[in-house]
Design goal:
The complex is a heterodimer. Chain A is mostly helical. Helix content of chain A is 72%, strand content 5%. Chain B has two domains: 3-54 and 69-292 and 396-466, no CATH class; 302-392, no CATH class. A two-stranded antiparallel ribbon of chain B has the order 1-3. In chain B, strands 2-4 form a two-stranded antiparallel sheet. The chains are: A mainly alpha, B mainly alpha.
Chain lengths: 86, 595
């Protein structure tokens, strides 16, 4: 553990955000795109089911959303804990 | 103006642009050579990363892989983009904060072990060299087709151009050329796709056209596509037909491999700040997504157009006649590509027509017997010609074809340059400066980096001219090694303080050896034909996992081995724990910049 307790809470806050982002990162392509595809076969998007759309395009859009959310959230967290680059 | 002149103009103009940038962005210091002086704007770095990442495989092969398989090959789309989430969340900001020049350097410092650094150099060189062979052969093929010169001449021209901007410009020259190459390749990819989407669905954005309506039948495009391919005995386009476990593991291996490829990681050393490294990963994915959201549309629409060309009267009607193929300008592309040997057809039953159907499907037998068909007569359609032939298949104007030629070359050259840079910096910075001659001055290090780059280009050109028969299979090896050795070591180096030198080295070696042996058991030892012990199929393979999907398992073993061994040996010293501590905090990244 760090000598600076502030840095420890900063790091655990970061780990929490990363964990949630990775849960979504895993569920969307592997869950909705592959494993759970048959559960949502009734939801149609332009001639195919939801799983097909997620596998071909939806996952990529979700990945983009995760990265931009993380960058925005972390830059705020850096400022909050005073560890941002001046 | 004939097509040859148009192609020459487009390719010549794009090359002149790259050389111009090279002269402007000449590297004067090691910082500029390895990390472009850390002054690259995050959006520009994102664009350069896009060009660096999107190789001949993304530009030329991927849409073809999706077109002839459909849903099951979505693995490439998800796998080659999902890795950027891992990069942005787990690696890029911390490695930028660390503030050195190469991936092996981080591994060597964090695990306080020159051995760890050399193992990383070994993994980096194997992964990058195998990857670069494919790019160089791609350059030769694209030149051969579009400029009507021999593959050898084409490859040599390509090598001279890469030499000009990579040897003199280093990372700085490569970065700014890649920005230009990105613009060329994305225009070349999307413009034909927009035309085709408009023709078929009336939608301007191809990614939306994929889920739009086929204007000639009034039905959704994908529904219509499923119907025509199943009519001909092929598997449905949108259906799931492969083994689920292998699909999951293959996607995961591509994701982890993407995040572990050194030529991609080192791009994040070039931005000014830690915050920029986070944004830059996002921008990189934006620019990659522009192509990756279009690719499934290109694939589906090409499959649709090709099937309709062979069955102009519908799948229940008469097949296209040899006379039409020879005389109708809409079929001119077939004669062009037949010359390359990548497209072949044969009128097996001498009825003057070419029947394209799946002769392996027993359900087609009744219809084949009734009509006197004796087998599929489109005997060869190489996946790789799909994107390059697409503008001709859709009857687009000549300048679009010229643009596609320049785009294919941009994709192959930009990736080749990135890989060559990763190899040369590992040799000059990690091997020579780090290990053999530590007292080297900055100017002699810069000189040795340039010599290493020139040698790497010569080796890559030689291998491109004499590709080992296994060039295609080695890409699986590159991803497998990056996933199983480099990514876990980097991630553990940042996220745990407990992993020590012994643990990291054992982990990397376990991941590396397991993955290599598993691939060799299925593909043959050192890819020598006849030495494989197991067939590389879902049923035949050891553990039921195909060799392309094994990288994820190798990564897991790396993590487990490193944790077990570290817990049995001494914890890392205090200064290493402090190093990890400082890497986790963005403040102070500027100060750490140059040493």
């Amino acid at each position: 553990m760090s000598d600076n307790p502030e840095n420890n809470t900063y790091w655990s806050a970061n780990i929490r955000i990363v964990t949630w982002c990775l849960v979504i990162w895993a569920i969307v392509p592997f869950g909705f795109g592959i494993l759970l595809r048959s559960m949502f076969s009734g939801v149609m998007i332009g001639g195919a089911d939801l799983g097909f759309w997620v596998a071909q395009q939806g996952s990529i859009l979700v990945f983009l959303a995760i990265i931009f959310f993380y960058a925005w959230r972390m830059n705020r967290l850096d400022a909050q804990y005073g560890v941002d680059e001046q | 103006m004939d097509q040859f002149t148009i192609n020459l103009l487009f390719v010549g103009a794009s090359f002149a642009l790259y050389i111009g940038i090279a002269i402007w962005a000449r590297a004067g210091s090691t910082s500029e050579f390895y990390a472009a002086g850390r002054g690259v704007h995050p959006v520009l770095n994102g664009m350069a990363t896009g060009a660096d990442w999107m190789s001949a495989a993304s530009f030329i092969s991927m849409a073809g892989l999706i077109a002839f398989v459909g849903y099951d090959n979505s693995t490439y789309l998800m796998g080659w983009t999902g890795g950027y989430v891992l990069l942005a969340l787990l690696l890029a900001p911390y490695l930028r904060k660390f503030g050195k020049y190469t991936v092996p350097e981080f591994i060597g410092d964090r695990f306080y072990s020159p051995t760890a650094r050399m193992v990383a150099v070994l993994c980096l060189i194997i992964a990058s060299v195998t990857y670069v062979i494919g790019q160089m052969t791609g350059v030769g093929v694209a030149f051969g087709r579009f400029l009507e010169v021999s593959n050898t001449t084409g490859l040599l021209i390509g090598a001279v151009v890469v030499f000009a901007y990579a040897v003199f410009g280093g990372m700085k020259g490569v970065t700014y050329t890649q920005v230009a190459q990105y613009c060329v390749l994305i225009l070349a990819y999307t413009i034909p796709a927009v035309f085709i989407s408009l023709q078929l669905t009336g939608k301007v954005i191809p990614g939306l056209g994929l889920f739009g309506t086929d204007m000639s039948s009034g039905e959704p495009l994908l529904l219509k596509l499923d119907q025509i391919v199943t009519d001909l005995g092929f598997k449905s386009y949108t259906g799931h037909h492969t083994d689920t476990l292998n699909m999951v593991l293959f996607t995961l291996s591509l994701m982890i491999g993407t995040a572990g490829l050194p030529h991609v990681i080192m791009r994040f050393f070039t931005v000014p700040r830690v915050a920029d490294a986070r944004w830059s990963a996002g921008w990189a994915l934006v620019f990659i997504a522009l192509l990756y959201l279009t690719a499934p549309a290109v694939g589906a629409m090409a499959r649709f157009n090709i099937t309709n060309q062979f069955w102009p009267n519908g799948t229940e009607g008469e097949a296209v006649s040899l006379e039409t193929i020879a005389n109708d300008p809409a079929y001119h592309w077939m004669a062009t590509w037949e010359k390359t040997g990548l497209l072949k057809w044969e009128d097996k039953n001498d009825d003057g027509k070419i029947q394209y159907y799946n002769d392996k499907n027993p359900d087609m037998e009744a219809r084949a017997t009734a009509n006197g068909w004796v087998g599929n007569e489109l005997t060869k359609f190489d996946n790789d010609i799909l994107v390059l032939a697409n503008p001709e298949i859709a009857n687009l104007p000549g300048w679009v074809i010229g643009l596609v030629a320049a785009g294919g070359l941009a994709a192959a050259l930009s990736t080749a340059a990135g890989l060559l840079l990763a190899i040369s910096s590992a040799v000059s910075h990690d091997l020579m400066k780090g290990q053999l001659t530590p007292n080297m001055s900055e100017s002699s290090e810069l000189m040795s980096a340039r010599v290493a780059m020139a040698v790497a280009i010569a080796v890559a050109t030689y291998l491109g001219l004499n590709p080992p028969g296994f060039a295609a299979q080695t890409v699986a090896l590159a991803f497998g090694l990056a996933a199983a050795s480099i990514f876990p070591a980097l991630m553990m180096g940042i996220f745990t303080k407990r992993i020590n030198n012994v643990g990291a080295v054992v982990g990397m070696l376990v991941g590396l050896l397991f993955t290599m042996v598993y691939i060799f058991l299925h593909k043959g030892w050192f890819f020598i034909p006849g030495t494989a012990s197991f067939p590389d199929t879902v049923e035949g393979s050891l553990f039921g996992i195909q060799s392309t999907a094994i990288g994820a398992v190798g990564a897991l073993l790396n993590f487990v081995a490193a944790f077990v061994v570290s817990s049995m040996t001494a914890a890392p010293p205090k200064e290493i724990q402090d190093l990890v501590e400082s890497v986790r905090i963005p403040r102070g990244a500027g100060a750490a910049t140059d040493h």
